[in-house]
Predict the 3D structure of the following.
Amino acid sequence: MSAIRNVHERVVEAPAETVGALLDRVSAEDDPVFPVPAWPPMRFDRPLGVGAKGGHGRVRYAVTAYEPGHRIRFAFGPPGHGFHELTVEPLGERRCRVRHVLEHDLRGTALLGWLLVVRPAHDTVIEELLDNVERAVAGAPAHPVRWSPRVRLVHRLLWPRPKTVATPEGALLIRGALDRPGYEDAYAMELRPGMPTDPQRWTGILRDAFPVLARTDGELLLDVNTAGLKARASILVDERYVTLSTAVRADSPRARLYWGVVRQVHPFMARTMLRRTHRALALAAPSAAERAGRVEGRRR
């Protein structure tokens, strides 16, 4: 068994009370520091406090200590043993140190996974969190974190895959688009905070290559007719998901022959294009601190 200790810290030119108030909003809807949507959001089954259970992505933990404005400790769930912790230490009236400490006991493949995959991603996430703390209280960081080639590869490989779902009840445009379709499918991905909710922003899923037939506030209907096929695609964005739905009807022998071939690769292509666009929009989104700043500006 190997004891892992990983420490990141940053001196911030702002009062500890100001920075501590930011950390108290970690996992909240208006979380200004956790680097979402490029990375999975931190979520719990209740407001931040001792006993809250959740995590981010595949990492599970629970809050075991919470001193508002000063310290939050998260204990990892089994089979591992360890914790990670955020603290704020005053260094005078207008300066403080923000520190993140991770300690974990690992062995075998878990240790190898930490060294090769988890640590590079973890280091990047924490440095981005510290960058966001600086953005929120002291302006742009002098040396914002840069992703290494390994982090880019890990990020690409671990990005979530679309789930196969039924055509959503809210996708009214595509539900009424074709009479008696011979084929229907739908794939959904969870929206992360900061991702666009205007379906027009998601037309890159289909490479912006098809005309829009109709639209509502949350749905676009596209004409994807080809080779005699009568086909429609819908992009629906609701409060939790973006869903790509397809309806197809092949009326002629030529269309049936064409669809018989294309149908074999269509599910793979639909999922691939949705996943690619989902990741691209997440990476292009403003940082958590920038989004929080805009909200605060509107409130003023």
Notes: Helices lie at 16-23, 108-138, 149-158, 172-175, 253-262, 266-284, 288-299. Residues 4 and 104 are 5 Å apart (CA to CA).
